[in-house]
Known about the structure:
Blueprint (H helix, E strand, L loop, with lengths): L2 H40 L11 H4 L26 H15 L8 E3 L11 E3 L5 H27 L5 H30 L5 H7 L1 H19 L5 H13 L4 H28 L11 E3 L15 H4 L1 E3 L12 H16 L19 H25 L2 H12 L4 H15 L8 H14 L11 E5 L4 H9 L5 H7 L9 H4 E5 L11 H41 L3 H38 L5 H18 L5 H25 L22 H18 L9 H30 L6 H7 L4 H34 L1
Amino acid sequence: MSPKELEELRRQLGNIAVNSNTAEQQPLQVIRKKLRDKHKKHNPGQATPQLPSWVYERLALIGDFAPSDGMPSEPSVQIGTLPLAFQEQTVVEDLLWLMVGVDGRYLVSQPLAAPMAARSFSIDPSLDVSISELLGRMLPLVSDYSIVTRFIEEQSSFEYGQVNHALVAAMRTLHKEYLILVSQLENLYRHGGLSLQKVWFYVQPTLRTMELLSSIAISVYKGACTGGATLSLLHERAFNTTGDAQAQELCLYLTKAASVPYFEILEKWIYKGIIQDPYSEFMVEEQDLLKERIQEDYNDKYWDQRYTVVQHCIPTFLQNLADKILSTGKYLNVVRECGQDVSFPAASEVVYTLKERAYVEQIEAAYSYASHVLLTFMLEEKELLTRLRCIKQYFLLAMGDFFVNFMELAEEELKQFVIDILPVRLEALLELALRMSTANTDPYKDDLKIELMPHDLITQLLRVLAIETQQEKSLAATDSPGFMLSGIEAFSFDYTVMWPLSLIISRKSLTRYQMIFRHLFYCKYVERQLCNLWLINKAVKVDFLKSSKWIRVAFALRQRMLNFMQNIQYYMMCEVIEPNWHLFENNLKTVSNIDDVLFCHTNFLDICLKDCMLTNPELLQIFSKLMSVCVMFTKCMQRLSNFNISAGAILQPHDIDIKSMHGEHFEEWRKDCLTAQHLVDSAESFQNSKTFETTIDMFDNNFSTYLLDLLDKINIHSTNDCEHSMINIIYRLDFSGYYAEKLEQLAMDRSQKERVEKQSSGKSTGAGTSVS
């Protein structure tokens, strides 16, 4: 081969070596890029530092076997032709070079197949078999050294985080001790006192150490471990090496060193409520959420999602304490965001140990302190209980004189359509009612506001139940225009709540209060209409009784309606709201943290909604129809009563609640309106007409049918779902046993119908079998 051809071959081999090195580095570049993107996503305002590119390109700087630029030089003499003693000395010299990452003359490293693959070596085949055998036992040490060296250099990049940096720093200490051993062996070699057997003897302790280090390095690399995942891996290694004292001591040393930066983040979190996690290694992750949205968005999950636990970042030795660690920092963070400087007075350094009891005691103490600080801050300084009582007075109608004053002032305004109502006028009437009642002593009365809702109560309930379901978009697409509602249907209170009370009294909680209020408010309105009708009827009762026999039926129906409305309100106010509120206040006296307060408050609202029929659309729709019949009846009777005063009075459709009337119910309502209007127009024959008697009978039949349907559905619901609280409605209304007989008859008819359907389905199945 000519010198020119030889030079070309060397150049090609050099290019192959460089290309193989580039291929090895490419996966590591991808990993570093992914980690940088992850850090940028979680910390958009903080750029991750990067090492200069030449650090990765100049591989000769890392202390591992660097690829040669040309064709490796061949030894002039085969080692097997040399005397045995000279072979051994030559191999010892080459071995010492290999132990520091440099190729020898007769022992040469092979290219790597992967960044963290074990390195193989080529040995001159002419070497003596005994020397080659002994040498083969020591080459795994060199391979482990190569893996550890590459791992240290790669994981020292900023992208891998502080925990991995601390781990490789501990490994670097052991790496230096290994190099000191090699230098001592080299000194012995230079003085002629080192044989291959002595090298084997001196490296015995180091073999196990390097094997463990390389095994950990490979596991961390393959698992792409950072932060808590790295600590979990190290903890498992330390726990699994219980029978090997030397290996366990090494693993404990590495784990303690690697856990220092993680525990520093943990201490700041549980002692001060601060997260300083630039590399996204900690188990608690902070989301970019605004606390102001709690007051606006029903579905806002600030408390649950502002700080969340990242499962793969939880070290296994802290797995059972993750929830308490999360809560501890959250509690302190709330107080800190209110301008209060908090810090755990008994803070102590958290140090890694296999005894988990040490962590439990420290974290439990910090958790108790944080819980007490936030709970005291909310209950005493922010007067949480006082605020909740104020909301109860307004939204749950606990302040009777204020409500009566407001209804008397605003009733005529609220009878109009929403589009015709001036919110400013309602606000003025609200202010006047507050000043004229005992609510004037409430220091937070100015936080009460007026809100005209865009949907009726049933639609609002359906929209709330459909949140985060497939029905949500379909309901939003079929919304009816809000200006078709009357003020009575759309009216609700709203309440201004500032941080941090908005954690407890969030928009979600306020929406639940509003649903209960709208339900009670409309019931109270219907009761007022029936009471006003009673007053009107009382004034003209003598004239009615002289001229009409059927008017007694109307008076009796009015009394049944009034009895129903008063009993249903008594049930909701005195058997649902008041007992559960009393229980809620008692529970607040025993809570130990703010999460317990949230649970008790949510549980109170859920029970009230459920027992007031506000979580069952079927029951609510029937109840709404009942109230609509009552309102139509009062309007009709008021027109009749006012006939003696003004014969031109006509039943106006906008005076009647038609929102819950659909299909045939709407047609029934329309016929009632036309009948009543016709009767009023026919003034001369009005009191002798049989048509109005028919109308009263129709009201009576509709009311009785809906009421019996409601009681039947309540009975079924209580039996099937084992919810017996609503059964009290039946007990209160069925004082004479009349409805009990009707309900029994309905149950018998239902069971007989099911039996017939079952028999018919069985016959059809039998007929199909015989035909086949």
